[in-house]
Amino acid sequence: VVQVVIVGPYLAILLFLFLIPLGMYSPCIREMGTLGPKPALIGHRGAPMLAPENTEMSFQKTIEHGGDGLETDVTISYDGVPFLMHDSTLRRTTNIEEVYPNETTQNAALFSWHTLKELNAGTWFLKNKPFACMGSLSRAERNQAMNQSIYKLSNFLRLADSQNKLVIFDLYRPPEKHPYRNSWINRTLEVILNESGIRPHLVLWLEDDMRSFVQSVAPGFQQTMGSKAPVDDLLMDNIVKLNLAYTEMSSEDIRKYAEANITTNLYVIDEPWLFSLAWCSGAHSVTTNAVHKLKNLSQPLFLMTPQQYNIMWILTDLTSVLLISLIFAL
User: Fold this and answer.
1) Are the C-beta atoms of 70 and 46 separated by less than 8 Å?
2) Domain of life, per the record (predicted)?
3) Domain shared by 178 and 284, yes or no
4) What's the predicted TM-score (pTM) here?
5) Do 260 and 317 belong to one domain?
6) Beta bridge partners of 82
7) Could you tell me the residue range of the domain that residue 94 belongs to?
8) How far apart, in whole angstroms, are the C-alpha atoms of residue 36 and residue 279?
9) Burial of 193 (0-12, 13-18, 19+ CB in 10 A)
C-alpha cells in the first residue's frame, strides 16, 4: 500500500511532465516552406563589439560585416552642429575627464563643435571593454580605435548613402537655454535634406514631434513609430514601420501589422537563439550589437516541423520510460 501511495502520484506527475512538451508552442515549430525571409540587420550604434560605439569605425565595421542599416543617437552642439552621442554627458565615451575634468557632468549639447571634435572617442573602448564577448582586434584595428573622434551627423549620413544603408536614430532635444532648444528638428532636417545628400527613402524617421511638418518637407522619409498603436491610427499618420523592444511584440502582432504593410523592427537582439525567435515570428528587421555574428546564421536555431518535434519528444519519452522501468526492475 505504501509503495502504491508513493509510486502512483510519482508516475502521474512523470506522465504529466512527459506530455507537457507535446503541447508547447514555438514560432520555430512550423510547416516546411512557411518561414519568412531572414530579418535585415541594423547595427546598434554601429558594431559596438568591434569598435567604439557611434564612431566612423563602428559604422564601417557594420558595413564590412554586411549590415543592412545603421542605428544611432543624435544631439545638437551649442553652435548648431548635430553629432552622434547616446549619453547626455561625454564622460563614458570620450576623454573629457582628462581634457576638461571640471566639465564631466555638463550636458553634451552645451559644448561647441570646436570643442567636441577635439575629444578622443575611442581610447575608452580598449580600456573599459564594454562587452564581455568582444571580438578580437588586430594591432591596426586597435590603433584605429584609439584615434576615433565624435562623428558629425552629416558625415554619418553621407557614409550611409554611399553604401545604400538605411538609417534610424533617436533625436535628443537640447536642454533649456540651448540656442536650438525650439528649432532642433528644423536644424536636423537642414542637415539631412541640404547638407548630407542622403536619399530620403533611406531615412527611417522615428521622432514623433512635428511629424506632420516633417512629412510635408520630407515626404520621402519612411515614417517610423516607437510604440504600438491601432492599425488605423498608424495608417492615418503614414507609419510604415514600428521600432519596438522585442519583449513588446508577438507573432500575432507582427502578422497583423504586416497585413497592413507595416513592417516591424525589434531591438536590441544579440543572441542567435533570440534572433531565431524573431525570424520565426516574422520580424522584418532587428537592431543588434552583433551584426558580425548574426549575419552568418543561415537559418533559425531549433527550426523543425511539428511532426519532427513530436517524434523527438515521443522518442525521448519512450526512452525515459524504458530506463525507469529497468531501474524499477533492478
Assistant:
1) yes
2) Eukaryota
3) yes
4) 0.89
5) no
6) 76
7) 37-298
8) 7
9) middle
